[in-house]
């Protein structure tokens, strides 16, 4: 009996391997116009994906040696990788290749099919619905949140002056505090209680999602459930979903109470300054009540997506920005001069949205930081139909990795690309439209670009004493 079972499993496994090998071979035959990087049988180029530093260096080595448009294979799954400007312009600027690559499926256990992971009609519908949530009038009310949480962070860092610290650890907690208040309208006090369950589980899911694409065993949907990380992820996601649903239900009750409130009472509250901020969740709930087709699960997907995209990317960007400013005293001096020109001697007052818009040099510093260290260094696309590029065929269902990090360090786009030089962005100087894409570009660009920049501004403009 056991022998029959073992033989059956072995036959199924070999059949699966043969199917994947045949499919891989057929795809590669149709992509012969792309330079193929040889790998080893079955694994392909998987061993080239070590830790993050190795992946960046290996990709740069491939591009330097073989060109800017290449074909790799990982576990018999071909993927195009590119840092070529023309290819970026084709992929990001058009309407033909809008679907996300299969790598994004690793996020679906937590995020479902929200704005980040959805494709086709669902994505278009969500994008249209969510765009108004990022209007200036909505975002302006949270500038004081950025400021308040930034001051908590500064207070924490002031006690660590003259010590070597991992700045990212502290800024991640700051970003979590900000995103929880702006997305869900709740206070988690991550900076005061870094060991809270919510903070811990967010970190755990982010860790697992980051390593899965580069681990052969865990990248397989068939084998991943056999790993310890699968059960850790399930536990973390259950907790995160539970918190989000709890907040949704609570905010829904408050919203119903507000809608039941008389117009006279609302006017009285506004006259006395009692006006609640509209968190991202509130906007979603109002859309549901106003007849928009958003279910409780739909709302949870978008809130969790906003949480994921809004805290980790922000923390990374601010950390690199602070490091660059700290190691370039001349840049510090220029930032300080700009702050004095805006605030005068009154550095204790909170920044306004208008103040942030006046910080032109700081904007150059942030952009140069994002050019060197984009928070999302790679983005993935997948062809949903046969697509022609410069007379060459890209077949349906090919995964494509656009290497933003490497393209924005291309000497053809930026002279002395590894040098930190904020003056690059003081003038446009005829830069190509897709040469600066830390937030992607085109129809699927990052919807949260403006609030992320504002969070960086609001923190950096108040960090001079710490630096």
TrEMBL record:
PROSITE patterns: CYTOCHROME_P450. Its cofactor is heme. Pfam families: p450 (PF00067). Heme binds at residue 446. Residues 245-272 form a coiled coil. One of its GO terms (molecular function) is monooxygenase activity. Keywords: Coiled coil, Heme, Iron, Metal-binding, Monooxygenase, Oxidoreductase. Belongs to the cytochrome P450 family. This is Cytochrome P450. It comes from Acanthoscelides obtectus.
